[in-house]
Each structure stands twice: as C-alpha cells, then as structure tokens.
Write a structure and sequence with these properties.
The chain has 452 residues and is an alpha/beta fold. It is built from 14 helices and 21 strands. A six-stranded antiparallel barrel has the order 13-14-19-18-17-20. The protein has a five-stranded parallel sheet with strand order 2-1-3-4-7, sandwiched between helices.
C-alpha cells in the first residue's frame, strides 16, 4: 500500500504536550481520510539538532510517495529545511494547524508564523508543494491535504501504467495522434501498440467452451431489449477473451482498439460488447485509437477510482451540449444494475450489440489532455448532466435506438466551442477540479478551466 510521510514541527519553547496533541489530532484526521502514514513528531529546533537528525534517520528507514510538513507552532525555517531537503524530489504539503479558544480568549502557538516563514522558502528552493492552513473554529482541512497526497500516489502509479492499443490512428484522425517521448516524460504513461492480427490469431485459437461460458455467465445477464443472434454473442465473447489475454499478459490498465477501420472493417464486428466486458473487469476503455483520451482516462481513474468513460459531442445548445456515444458507456456510468443492450446495425456495418443504457445524471467533470506546440494542457469543464431529449443518430436501423447520452449544462458553450480539442471528452462524476489541479501541478501540466 502507498505510504505518506508525516513530520510534525513545533518550536522548542512551546509546551511539548501541546505540539504532540495537535500533531496527533492531525495524524488521526489524515488516517481517517484513508492515508497510510509514516509519522515522526514532535520535531523541534533544539540546539543540538537531536530531533531533526532523529526525524531524518527515522524517515530514511521507509519509502513514501509524498511528505506532509505539519506545522503545529512556530518553528525556525532551518529546522524544517534540514528535514525536507532530503525529500525535495517528492511532492509535499506545507500544512499549518491553528490555535483554539479558551472561553473568550484565542490561544495560538503561532502556527502561521511558521508556515508564512516557510512558504516562500519552499518556493525558492523549487519544491513541488501545496500550502494549506487551518482556521480556528472551522473543520480541519485534512481532506485538502489528503487529496494532494492521493494525487502524489496517482502520479507515482502513472509512472508504470500502460495503455494497450490495437492498431493506430483509426480513420486517419489527427486528434488521436500523440508524441510518445514527451508523453512518457510528462505523464509517465506508456502507450504500447499491438497488432490486430494477434487478436485474430488468439480468437481463432480459442476453445468454443470458453466463449460459451462468457456468453452464458456474462453477456446473457445484460438487459436485452430484443434477442441477439448467437453468432454475434459468441464473436463478442471470443474477441473479448483474446484482448483480455493480451492485456493481462502485458499489464495494461487501459485498452483502445482500432474501431471503424479495424474491428468493423477487417473483422466485420462492431467492438462495443468487447469494451463493455473489459469495462466490467475494471479496464478503462475508449475506441478509435484515442491516445490522449486513453491517457486522460488513466489519470482520472488513478485520481478518482472511477472508470472515467468517454462521451462525444453531437449537438451544441445555448447553455448545454448533447454528449453521447454510438457504441458503449463505462460500466460505472450506467444508471442501473446492468447494461441495457440492443442488437442493431448502422449504415453498411453488420449487426452488433449496442449499449443503450441510461446514463447516470448529476455533477460531472469533463476533461481532456491536449498537446499543442510542445506543451500539455488539461482542459477541465464542470457541468451538470441531465437526461437528454429524445434523439437519434441518423443511419441506424429503424426504429433508431435511443443512444446513451447526457445533456450537460456547462454555461458558456461558445467559449467551450472556441477551445474544444476533440470529439471525445472524459467524464467523471462530482467536482474533481481540485484533484485534477493537484495532479497536474506535480506533472507540470497546465490546467485550463475552459468555461470559467
């Protein structure tokens, strides 16, 4: 399990029991937020630097992903820096606690004297840190501290995360291109490509019983609006097993497949149910070789624990956008216990199993990693997802399916349209702007709050 370092500081002349009490309460609050801590306190500025040296020695015995510098009272800058300099490569939180009231008297240990002496010093030393301070009479901001630490954990996880991508640049789209070297350098994420031929070879080598098991125990448990032919379900099961075997062997966390010019054109099979099964297994999934879409999904997944499904734009209104999918939605976006599916065909394509599940409504954060002129920016838009109007995409078998979608109120649609980077944006539920800012600050990625 990922760990976080926690060091509590207080000046040598402050009653030590007060510093211990305050640090202990802060430590408990962070543990209640779900953090696993390696704690050292109290650390004071004693002349012999016994406590500073002891803290350094204790912390060196462990490894951790971020360091919380908890200031429980005034502390000279040098005492803190002699500890933090050993961890300048890690993200840090400079957290100032606060005083308390005794009757009508405010009692303080000068916590913010300590943090205000340190903030500019940390900045000058080039630390990657967040400054957080508590306010007397208000709830401790341990949640803000914990969110930053969790972003540090996510950043470390991304260093070894991989996207598995069958094929490249579906439909010759420009918006799906990426620069592998800068992407790895900035985010830590690696995109590995594998050939569709490998999927087909593994598919052809599968035992019929293995495919039948997936059909009986997974696919047939979905809510079918009308029966699907057995051949389509068996193909879905087989191709899913082939892709999952590759993902498991190579430790992929995200999957994208060449869709229109790949699975549909070459294999004669729309891949929606493959993505649906992979999503149920916990993979983040996006179609059409959407490289930066897949990377955005991984970043959001590590931050929020959500599958971070994609939606694409169909219509713009005065204050909202119609965002839907022509194929599938992530498993945790479904409003219900299981997928609702419909066998259907689009244009000249063969019949596939289309996901037409109702999508959960509520506050959503739309995000998209953008690469432009050698720099990465994370576009972030907060919206309110509502049930869409009755609509259809022209070209489906009649009666046309009601595709999975949300009407998302975002306010300044014109500003969004002037900056929109791609047809796919990644969806997470809740207001995740602060979490995204934390992660991007650690990775050196600019954040563009497009509609604000």
């Amino acid at each position: 399990m990922a760990k976080i370092g926690f060091v509590g500081f207080g000046e040598v002349n402050t009653p030590v029991d007060v510093i211990i009490r305050k640090c202990s309460a802060a430590e408990k609050a962070l543990k209640d937020e779900g953090l696993d801590l390696i704690s050292v306190y109290p650390v004071a500025d004693d002349y012999e630097e016994t406590q500073v040296n002891g803290a350094v020695a204790a912390l060196k015995k462990e490894s951790f992903d971020a360091l919380v510098v908890c200031v429980a009272g005034w502390i000279p800058t040098h005492a803190v820096v002699k500890v933090t300099e050993h961890y300048r490569h890690l993200p840090m939180v400079l957290w100032g606690l606060c005083g308390w009231y005794e009757g009508d008297r405010l009692v303080t240990t000068a916590d913010q004297a300590g943090t205000t002496g340190l903030r500019a010093t940390f900045e000058g030393l080039g630390y990657n840190f967040k400054y957080v301070y508590d306010i007397i009479g208000k709830k401790t901001r341990s949640d803000v501290v914990a969110d930053y630490c969790k972003a540090a954990i996510a950043a470390k996880q991304l260093l070894v995360d991989k996207v598995g991508m069958a094929g490249y640049r579906d439909m010759n789209l420009y918006g799906t291109l990426y620069d592998g070297m800068s992407l790895k350098k900035t985010t830590g994420i690696e995109i590995e490509t594998f050939e569709m031929l490998e999927i087909q070879q593994r598919y052809e080598a599968l035992d019929e019983a293995a495919k039948r098991d997936v059909v009986n125990n997974r696919i047939l448990k979905w809510n079918f609006l009308k029966p699907a032919n057995d051949d389509a379900m068996m193909k879905a099961a087989g191709y899913y097993l082939a892709v999952k075997a590759i993902a498991d062997e190579r430790n992929y966390k995200a999957i994208s497949l060449k869709d229109v010019d790949g699975m549909k054109k070459l294999c004669g099979f729309p891949p929606a149910p493959i993505f649906m099964l992979l999503s149920e297994d916990g993979y983040t999934t996006v179609p059409e070789n959407d490289s930066l879409g897949a990377v955005t999904q991984l970043m959001m997944n590590r931050l929020t624990g959500q599958l971070a499904g994609y939606l694409e734009f169909y219509e713009f209104f005065d204050n909202s956008v119609l965002a839907g999918v022509p194929d599938f939605v992530a498993a945790d976006m479904v409003d219900g216990d299981t997928y609702t599916v419909l066998p259907a065909a689009f244009g000249m394509l063969s019949q596939g199993i289309l996901n037409v599940s109702k999508v959960k409504t509520g506050t959503v954060t739309m995000s998209r990693l953008v690469y432009k002129d050698g720099e990465y920016t994370m576009q972030v838009i907060l919206g309110e997802g509502k049930n869409p109007p009755k609509w259809e995409e022209c070209g489906w078998d009649q009666p046309a399916p009601q595709l999975s979608a949300l009407e998302i109120e975002i306010g300044d649609v014109e500003k969004f349209a002037d900056n929109v980077a791609c047809q796919h944006y990644i969806i997470t539920y809740g207001d995740n702007r602060a979490k995204i800012k934390n992660l991007c600050s650690m990775l050196g990625i600019k954040v563009d709050l497009v509609c604000e």
